[in-house]
Structures are given as structure tokens and as C-alpha cells.
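Project standup — Tuesday

K.O.: blocked on the structure for the chain from last sprint. Re-posting the sequence here as requested.
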Amino acid sequence: MATAWDSMFRDSLADRVTRLTAETKPAWGKMHASGMLAHVNDSYRMVLGDLYVKSKNLPLRFTPIKQLIIYVAPFPKGAPTAPELIARCDGADLAEEQRAYTALLARLAAIPPGTKLPDHPAFGTLTHRAYGVLIARHTDHHFRQFGL
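H.V.: unblocked you, prediction finished:
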């Protein structure tokens, strides 16, 4: 299973994001291209500890449910999103978000295994591997949303 810690997978993400244009339309949802990338970038900022996202007390924090969603179940289209992760979507500039994406992806790549990462607002404490899988699957979900 691909993770954000896999350099070949990160390289494919870096390539895919270059194909995103302001005219790229989503296959589902209300986000536009720059808003989607702002959302993905802010999710990376959350993992890096740069953006605080309020915790939710959800059943997703329980290990069997958490593992099922992170590793197995397809990501639902139109799932609720933390307000902090969509706050910048409407005013986002695509070129700026693409530049930020490249820098954020490099910062993620530099996180060594075993690093204690911030708790996820919905899933709580995650291992380095689980966070890597979640980041990869979340990013891929949104990139597929825009045909990337």
C-alpha cells in the first residue's frame, strides 16, 4: 500500500499536481481546482503541526473503525470536512497553491519514521505508517476527483 513516505509515490503526486489547471473540473463535489489544492495543502500543514484543527470526539478514534477507514474502505465523496481544512478554499490561487504543495511535500518527506505526529482531529493518535497511508489515500482521492 502506498504511503506518503514512499519517494516513488511522492514523485507521482508531484507530477500529477503539475497537470492541474484552473479549468480542471471535478468529477464530484463543489470544490474548484485551487480550493481542492488549498484543502490538501492545509491537511499537510495539519500533519506538520503548522495548522491546528480542533479534535472531534468521533467513533472513528476506535482502532477497528480507524484501521478499516485508513487502510481498506474507499473514501466517501462529499464527506464532512473540518472547517479549518476548507477555510481557504474560496480565495485560493492555484499557482501559489502548487508552489506551496511542492514545499509541503518535501517537508513531509523529511519526517523520519518514529516521529510523533500531531493527533488527527477525527482519528486521534496515528502511527507514522498509518499517517503515511492516510495522507497518500486522501491526496489520491482528491487528485482522482480532478482527473489527475
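K.O.: great, moving the ticket to review. The chain has one domain: 7-145. DSSP finds five helices and no strands in the chain.
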